[in-house]
Amino acid sequence: MTADQPESGGVSRRTLLASIGVLAAASACSPPATTAGVTGATSSAVAQTVTAPDLSTSAEPSSMDASAPPAPATSSSTALPAGGPAVEVVRGSGTRPQVALTFHGAGDPAIAQNVLDVLGSRQVPVTVMVVGTWLAANPGLAGVISSAGHELGNHTWTHPVLADLPEADIQDEIERCRDLLVHLTGSPGAFFRQSSAQHATDQILRVAGRSGYSTCLSYDIDSTDWTDPGPAAIREAVAAATAGSVVSLHFGHPGTVEALPGILDDLTARGLMPVTASALLAP
Questions:
Q1: What pTM was estimated for this model as a whole?
Q2: Is residue 69 one of the residues assigned to a domain?
Q3: If we measure between CA atoms, which residue out of 224, 77, 65, 60 comes closest to residue 134?
Q4: Which of 105, 132, 158, 258 is spaced 20 to 30 Å from 5 by Cα?
Q5: Distances (CA, A) of 225 to 23, 98, 251, 253, 279
Q6: In degrees rounded to 5, what are phi and psi of residue 103?
Q7: What CATH number corresponds to the domain at position 45?
Q8: From CA 114, how far away is CA 257, in angstroms rounded?
């Protein structure tokens, strides 16, 4: 993504979840990258990967709500194994007529619910990459999303320009969101996605792996909904999806809600089935 809105919250992972502030964040995306190679999205999943590029031209501009109070993160009792660097996955192999719709989890929760209502009416499962401070402010949405058959992923705690942070702060951003997901759902989420850039740096991949994530989920289709270009433009952008595509969309934008029925109609007309990212990347 190339233009999300980060949120702030100074917290300790060792404290219990207490009073937590809310901050709306809306992310963005940069142009699709060429894919190469095959790797696993989990220990058994197959997908194409890319080498992380120079982010100097793809970092997202961002803004924050300075009025949001600090939000303490939770510590997890679940032991998460530290591993080697995560692998960035941009799209699936394309061997099945499937696409994964992924949503940046932030913004007005009422608009998020509108998106979920459209998806529910069409029985379409998606992957929601949540910003930690947003989920902390709306903890009930974790159960709503999961119970509807969608999957959750980690999109950092405050959605900063992650590549600009020192390594210790990168780890803090990943692990705060991870620990909240574990606290609310019992799982750290299927994937990690870097914030304020389409691609992860080698450093981010290394820290994500150390934090228990084997896959950094990127995307090859930017819906452009974060720019609020109107429903027709959003629908047109997603029309570029092909079998195996991972599409970046966002909660918090009314245009996305308006465009979504048409997007789903277009995919159906082309014989493409929307699935979760885990299903897309399964062998």
A1: 0.74
A2: no
A3: 65
A4: 258
A5: 19, 21, 9, 7, 24
A6: -115, 135
A7: 3.20.20.370
A8: 7
